[in-house]
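If it is no trouble, can you show me the amino acids of a protein and the tokens describing how it folds?
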Amino acid sequence: MFEYHGWIAVRETAVGDDDDLRLRQVVDELRLRIAKMASPYLHDLRWMNGEPFIHVGGNSNHRSSSDVVGLFEHVAKVAPGSYGLLHVRDDEDPGHENEVRVLRLARGTVTHHTEALLSPCIPTLEDPFTV
């Protein structure tokens, strides 16, 4: 199972004074990338109060069915002022099967962390399996 929930505030730079034309070009390119992900899950890019935001959420059988982690890594490269969080529960991630992981996007870098409030999944979220 690969469950994910996340958001990104898309910013061209961390300076806070984005070039409007360049930012719109980045957003248009990101919109195409998101459209190509073609899945039944939540993959949304929209402008709110003059600022672009991406929201994602889904629950698939395997990680390979969604490139949402790749989306976060791509945004880090093309819009390094962006920031956001992606919470992931992946029971096929070696060494992290019983954790909710958080990917943090900040200043052009994606880092991976254990979400202490939701981990370990058993017993924090679910009871142990008993026969």
About this structure: The chain has one domain: 2-124. The chain has three helices and six strands. The radius of gyration is 16 Å.
